Amino acid sequence: MTVSGIQIDSLEPVTSTGERLIRGLSFYVIPLFLILLTLWALIFLPNRYPSPSGQPLNFHALASDQAAPDPDLISRLTASPLQRQLQLDEPHWLLLDLPSKDDGNEHVLHFPASRFNMLACWRTNDLQTLTVNDHSLSTQALRSPVQGYTVDLGASADPASILCRLEVDRPGVLQVELWAADDIKHSSIRYTRGIGLLEGGLLTMSLFMLVLAATNREWIYLLLSVWLVGNLRLGSMAMGWDMQWLGHTLPAAVMPPLRQVTIACYFLLSYSLFTLLLKPSIHSMIQQRWLSSAGLLGLVLLLASVLLPTDLFQPLMWFSAIYALCCAGWVLLSILLQARSRIMLWQLVLLSMALCVLISAIFLAAFGRSSFVENFNGVITLLLSNLMVALAIGERLREDRSEALRARNELMAHYTLTPIGMFTLGESGAFHRMSPVLAEMLGIQFDPSGPPVHWTDFFPEQDWKAVAQSTQASQDVTVARHDTHIGPCQFALRVAIVNQHIEGSLQDVTARAETLRQLRLMADNDPVTNVLNQRGIEKALDEALARSAEDKPCLLAYLDLNHIKYVNGAFGHSSGDALLLKVCEQLEAVLQAGEKIGRIGSDEFVIIFEDSDPEQARALANEVIEALNKSPLMAGNRSFNLRSTLGLVEVAPGMAPQEAISAASRAAREARRQHQDMIIYDQDSNALQEHAEELRLFEQLEGGSSRGLYLEMQPIVSLRRPIDSLNFEVLLRVRDSSGQLIPTGRIISSAEESGTITIIDKWVFSATLEWMSKHEQQLARTQLVNINLSGVSLNDDKFIQWFFDILARYEHLARKLCVEITEGVALDDLEHTRHFMRRLQQTGVRIALDDFGAGYTSFSYLRELPADAIKIDGALICDMLNKETNVAIVRTIVELARNLGMISIAEWVEDVPTLQALQELGVDYVQGFIVSRACTPAELLKATAITDLVKDAPARQFLLESQKKHSPTV
What average pLDDT does the segment 786-814 reach? Predict the structure, then answer.
């Protein structure tokens, strides 16, 4: 068969007799043989897994709260009538007369109930207690076909009668059956095999769909894959073995909410599948609204599954299912009446699926779980799932094949109709084929059978291999041609070398080249404000710095607006752009003609004061801040109050543009931190020198040198047995090139902003672990070594991988480490932090929440973070005795930590009364100047006990008394 001259036979014809024979066997004989063999086995061969059943028993029943059996009770039971079923809603006694069993097999008594509060049985003749086995769902991962309870009777004919007392946790119907022990075993094997077949089949199909989704990048396959898993979970719920998943037992406590969430998720998956497959056939707005309402009901059902108890969730579930089934049935019926196409197959399948769920639900609601309903539901679910997958794959393959054929036809049509010139060149450089568009571009009438037309007749000679490589790199090669009528033209050339031929395209890009030329002129300007962009300002600053070397002063201002992001979020980017334009108008109104303005961020501007006196530049910068901050700016019909900060830097000779912008940015940030409008760095100011020193240090660290970094240790003391351990926190110290100490907080803040903090964290951890490994014997009494981890490093995947690699190298030291994470960082990305903590704890490392109580504190977050310790913020500790509120907060934190199984550490402890108060509050560890200032590693190694490092005599005496007061921990 052909379509537009294209062969579309599904199989290539063969002429060989052997090949025809092989195809006949493969396509017809062998499949038919397998089908016949399967039918013969199913119909005529005996089943290896028979389905036995128990013998129902009659019994005497008596409602009574009596706790123990006696002859009077037995007499009253004997006088009561025999019955086979009992509505059980209160404690009862049962008397069962067992039929004679002389087959020598062991037998069990079966009570098919979901749950008893109490079940006890005795022999009637001697009141000997019998063994009761619990087969309820709450105690088994895989439900037995004899769900409920069994009583072992043994192989003998005795006892002739059984006396039982039982209590239930909910009303129900009681029946009693007599089973052979071997029958129960065989039935369990059959049941387990069926579960395995159903679970394995559906999971295999789901995995197959997932692979198709990954390879074809099709969401429909992913949805089908997840829907199949939903079928499996729903079927297992109906069949009573949903407490297992992939051979693992799920906790009984989570099953009720998990079942509710499963039903809600399956509802949403079925809705998505239904709407996705049938959306092209739904044209009625009313039908679309009804289906949308079903989707919203699914979201409500999902929320209810998490929040509502079972007795409130079930009515909502029934209402949602019935409402959705009605909507689906109505839509399907409407489509079936209006359309006659392949899509009807989908509709029939989905309708069958909905009816299956409805019928299963009716059976389960009316009769409870039974063997019939379980097998029915499992088989129907599997068959429908197979049918759905088969139809999905078949339909998708058919569409893919049709799409391929359509693409070939479109390619042929495009070759003729596309506005881009298409051609094929031979080895000699002559055109073999040429599209009509290219012939028109070249102004010729091309005839393949006529005289040869060569490439060089119109264009320069080309290195075709180089052009093909550029094409593979998605880069056009521009070729020029001078047209006598319209002048010089430019073409974008793309080629591919196929079978020694050159397949290529030519596109006239003359107009585009002119546009690009104009765009290059605009490359240095911001499109929103029309001032210089970052590229333009750096070029202008580079030129200004080159002129400043000729004794022409240059100052740089960095303006940071803090209101633009809020305006963009609240009123839209159009309002934000209008405000930016208004800011630029204000700047241009204040500044002189020689100053250049550039926008280098969403709300950041740079101003270059070239050839300006420093005092004049300061005055202009001050006018800029006043113009922006003193009065509201009108943008459109809204007025906005800005709170801008400005950093002004006198650029030193030889300073690079990026270094100057960085210094001005630091000044602006410093102004915002100090709540000032403007901060000025003179050319010889300490701040500018400090910034240069920071840049030098960071550049040095990035180059691999750690010169200037060193470590100190501050002891952490136990308030129960302080002499028994020698714990400490590792502290970073930094010296500049002249040997002066740089404040660590300032370095950490700058390093976090520049991204260099991960290098510093790597050095701190590696240096600490190397030192601990070298002096491991001298640190035998050390139980806790605290090291701080920055938030930037915590969110750096490469650092995290490096961190766990080095922990694996020093795994023998891991149990001594305690990583401190600040509370604010931990709460930035709760899920990421929780995963990191758990992974860290698996290696033996402990985690402490640092600066707890510094402002972010919400005690409910502690349940989400698996921390081992809480480090109370020092601001609450240092003047704790002067503020009762601080004492109350500390007491609450300590009690909360104790209840959550965490230790508490108080820092900034500076006097003995605070030590005593913290001990009375139950704080586990303290750290502060009253105990010891930070010391060198050598000083720490010399100490035999913590008291060797305590300089304050009252504090030392307090620790010694604490040692005597508390007995050693076993």
Answer: 89
